[in-house]
Fold this protein.
Amino acid sequence: MIVSHFGRVAETAVKTLTASGAIVDTSLAILDGTSAVVATTLAAGQAGDTLDIVCLNATNAVTLVPSVLLGGTTITFTANDAVRLVYTGAAWAVVSNVGALIS
């Protein structure tokens, strides 16, 4: 059984997004901007929820706008960037960042 960052059983542990949309029911999101802009959103979670996000390709813009993000409102990715987010109970906190821009 794989538990998602929302505390529910996830269909799969890894989801790849190649177009804009919401990140849901996963513990690892792979963003691929090869063919289109990838503008993603992330709803509030439950305290302790974690989510890893990796950007494979940023030929087109790749961004994430969580519902509430400590220290900013948007995460902008370039190729090979990665972040780990943890939900505090009130907001998503970036606890690890490799190359992404938090603004």
